[in-house]
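One-letter codes give the sequence; backbone shape is given numerically. An example follows:

. . .
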Amino acid sequence: MFSTLKEDIAVVFERDPAARSAWEVITTYPGVHAVLFHRLSNRLWRWNFKWLARFISHFARWVTGVEIHPAATIGRRVFIDHGMGVVIGQTAEIGDDCTLYHGVTLGGTSWKQGKRHPTLGKGVVVGAGAKILGPIMIGDGAKIGSNAVVVKDVPEGATAVGIPARIVDGERVQQRALKAEKLGFSAYAISDDMNDPVVKAIHGLVDHSVVTDQRIDFLLEQLKKLGVQIPEETAPAEKFDPDYLNKIVD
């Protein structure tokens, strides 16, 4: 039991830079308290003390703002950050090393008995306000964006954003991030489907810039194959010689 508690405390220091001491984590982190209460209620549920398990779960909800059904399965080193408004249903399963932020719901879409809540693999990160609904599978290492509504399986290592959630093109996002860094800014935490015309316009410009760079690199590679000497760096735009291309071709 103490080794598991040590893991719970250590994982807070890994994922929350605001944590200052073990005593602070034990006494003031509702996400940690919610997990500890759940371990007790889950054990009582399995021992068939159903009412007592539900009562402890209800008390934990009142104290922490986190509602976890006693029958839910939660792995080791699971961190619920902030915690308020988190709801985890009866047949939900959460793998080791997952992180859930406030307002997350692992809910069902049916009143039928049996498996009706999602399963999270290992190392899944679920952003604030996200809703994962139904008996679906979220693969190991997947990331769910803030306020996303997920109703379909998410592959291992993928990122899902939007309403309804869709899988983000990882290569495109990486290219955009690299280009944005070169331009001196980064559209951090802004998704493709935001209904902000300015954001969409900026994303369009960055994507166009990425394609343009790829075409320029291709042209330079072809010129080198033709024997044209291409300097590694060109002069700044204000000093650019308009006859430069003619000179290198001649």
The first helix runs from residue 2 to 15.
